[in-house]
Amino acid sequence: MCLTRIHHDRFTDAPTVVDEVRSRDAALGIEHESLVLTRLTGVMRRVAQVTGDDPVAATLDALASGADLVLGARLLSADGRSVGVPDVLVRLDDGYAPIEVKHHKVLGSSGIDGLVAPLESLTDVSATGPAKFRTGRRRDLLQVAHYRRLLDEAGYASRLALGGVIGSERPYRCVWVDLEAGHTPIMVEYDDYVVAATDAIEHGVAHNDEPLVDPWWRTECTRCDWAAHCKGRLEATSDVTLLSNVTTSVRDRLARDGITTIEQVAAMDPTDDRLPGPKVVLQARARAVGRLLRFDDPSTPLDVPSSPTEVDFDIETYRGQIYLAGFLITANGSSTYEPIIDWKGDLTGERELVRRLFSRLAEFAFDGAVVQHWTDYERRTLEEAGARHGLSIPGSPTVGRWFDDHGVDLCDWTRRNLVSPAGYSLKVIAPLCGFEWRDDDPGGRQSEIWFEQLVDGDDTMRERLLEYNEDDVIAQREIRRWVRRNDSGAGPGTGIPSASTWPIPARRT
Ligand code: SF4
Prior knowledge:
This protein is of the alpha+beta class. It has helices at about 5-10, 20-45, 55-65, 140-155, 185-205, 225-235, 250-255, 260-265, 280-290, 345-365, 375-390, 400-405, 410-415, 425-430, 445-455, 460-485, and strands at about 45-50, 70, 75, 85, 90, 95-100, 105-110, 110-120, 130-135, 160-165, 175-180, 295, 310-320, 320-330, 335-340, 370-375, 405-410, 420.
């Protein structure tokens, strides 16, 4: 956990903001864990469930009994300062190893070397195959390292320094990682972290109004209850970590030379080797002026993806299953929204939706239309749905090939041509082009909650979901219109200033 958060959680007397999406994620995580544990208890012979008023003592009893699996354990360090609540403790040959259950994917095509085991063979390390644990999920391993350290103190840790994580991949599997292997072993990283976390807490006891470690903006902040609190503070000082790829070490390096604000970074030479890359300066310039800029010379027109009939396309899914696909068909200056819907949300309904959707995509291809979408989500999801239902797009050998021939990823085009002040989400880019969603809380993950509310009987959500999907496709069209409107006379986009010069000239449009 972020050291700033460790401070805030304990000492800061300010309201946190827990949004609906994060609350739902937490509920889904609990549901997933319970599903996995039920599956595990079904395949293991000797399972001890810790209960009672003294769970620490009951855990030690369960471990002493030699149970294959200990669930609901509570471990306490000898000095009483450290506690751990592992999801699962599993008995290997000579002791126990900890496992966490996580509601996200942990298996990768690259990452940390590991071993993968089916749930039935958790106690048998020889019944494993090679696997890669996703580097981006390293924090899961720090968590199991914590449990291993506590098991070790209790005298029950296996000599094999394995820590396991069961992710959301089906069928459920455990990925084991050797916590003492590698250039920087997880256990070493964990021990260093404990020292830092303890320092942060001891500092907080003496100075509860100010964390030992200043906040810095990174991916985990977007899922943190203190995000609004920290972001407000970082924005007030125009902190450089609000820029992509600027870590705390880059911030410190710049600060040593007196560079502390985004505006100062905007004025730097993009090739300055104190920065992780030239795009940092370009983003700083876009952020400093609060608008989209071009990467290149503004006198060259931008090649906006177009065709006589332009189709903007967006799908909505619930737990990976498609229930709504929307097209915005624009020709001769007017647009028509055309949704294909399955409100039932079951597999039979999805199959019929995908069949109709594929046949519509084939018609667009026949008409020579370019179908535009945001990121490769539509492509990937339709490939999976096609495989799930044994369907393909008429006239095309594969779904992927259809997208190669007739689709355009407008997000990719935007990334290649425009510098954004704050990333390339459609919800960031379209407002910079003057578009606003009708819904005051638009978002793909919010829409999953609305779909659940619809299934639970709230019929008003039908309209909300349709409006949201329609606005997503209109947003794409508006980005292209904005680029075309920014025409200084030499073609689309020639009125958009370039980030390659600083300061940025005054707005032309
Ligand atoms: S918002 Fe970011 S910096 Fe602030 S406490 Fe959370 S993770 Fe740490």
